[in-house]
Amino acid sequence: MRNSYKNIEINCAKNTHERVFELIDADIDSTIVDIPSGYGAFVLRLQDHGFNNVIAIDIENILKIPHENFSTGDMTKSLPMESGSVDTLVCIDGIEHIDKQFQFIKEVSRVLKTDGKLIISTPNISSLRSRWRWLMSGHHNKCKSPLDENNPNPLHHIGMISFPEMRYLLHTNGLYIQNISTNRIKSISWLYLLIAPLSYLYTTLSYRKSGKKEGTGIINQQVKSSMFSLSVLLGETLIIKAVKK
């Protein structure tokens, strides 16, 4: 199987599950939610490492592993947990599939405990490679051609989201970024560093102008710093860990 964990299919880019797992705090008694849980590969990984309070949530139960703690849930509606009941919520390559991203993050903030963690991944459309593809074709990486509008599918990437948009989404809901990472940097991505100086200059001038006009100078500097980190600039998948304050 091309991308799997113990023969359970993983529907995301290589190394994403491994990197997300590395970001999870070590307390095996903590309550962890995996949404969307898919076939259960990440749930199984957590179980194999001793985590004993894992809640799997998806719009339907398609788990291919034995797991009693499954709840039906829709990322565009209220999540089936009490407020302040979750230590860590994991959302691997799910947010780009929904049209109510603010509603979802608001719900994540509601169910997390104070100092609870969100670990979220999504295709990295802020990478130089994806920006170049957008310039040339009007399509981002991981969404290279028009979606089949005659056959809408939950697997369609209808809500591709950039790093600045993700940061705004999180920070306006009380979830503050602790760590920015990626699953991997492909060899071809290093070639796009050739356009990095021009991108840096344009971004600097643009952010400086808007910062003075809108009073967002500090925010702009922070966002620019993140945008030109290697994980965002060259990474295939954007992986963010945020904490609820």
Strand element count: 9
Query: Per DSSP, what share of the residues sits in E-state strands of 2 or more residues?
Result: 15-25%
Shape verdict? globular
Number of helices in the DSSP assignment: 8
CATH architecture descriptor name: 3-Layer(aba) Sandwich
Q: Which series of helices and strands comes N to C?
A: EEHEHEEEHEHHEHHHE
Number of self-contained structural domains: 1
Major β-sheet annotation? 7 strands, mixed
Radius of gyration: 18 Å
Distance between the termini: 40 Å
Helix content: 25-40%
For CATH, the homologous superfamily is named as: Vaccinia Virus protein VP39
Low-confidence stretches: none
* Strand order of the biggest β-sheet: 5-4-3-6-7-9-8
Kindly report the CATH topology: Rossmann fold
Could you name the CATH class?
Answer: Alpha Beta
Please specify the SSE layout and strand pairing:
Blueprint: E1 4-5, E2 8-9, H1 16-22, E3 32-34, H2 41-48, E4 54-58, E5 70-72, E6 86-92, H3 101-111, E7 112-123, H4 128-137, H5 163-171, E8 175-182, H6 196-214, H7 217-227, H8 230-234, E9 237-244
Parallel strand pairs: 3-4, 3-6, 4-5, 6-7
Antiparallel strand pairs: 1-2, 7-9, 8-9
Helix pairs in contact: 6-7
Task: Describe what you observe in this structure.
- The protein is an alpha/beta fold.
- The protein has a single domain, classed as Vaccinia Virus protein VP39 (Rossmann fold, 3-Layer(aba) Sandwich), CATH 3.40.50.
- 33% of the residues lie in helices and 20% in strands.
- The chain has helices at residues 16-22, 41-48, 101-111, 128-137, 163-171, 196-214, 217-227, 230-234, and strands at residues 4-5, 8-9, 32-34, 54-58, 70-72, 86-92, 112-123, 175-182, 237-244.
- The strands form two sheets. A seven-stranded mixed β-sheet has the order 5-4-3-6-7-9-8, sandwiched between helices.
- Strand 1 and strand 2 form a beta hairpin.
- Helix 6 (196-214) packs antiparallel against helix 7 (217-227).
- The model has no long low-confidence stretch (mean pLDDT 97).
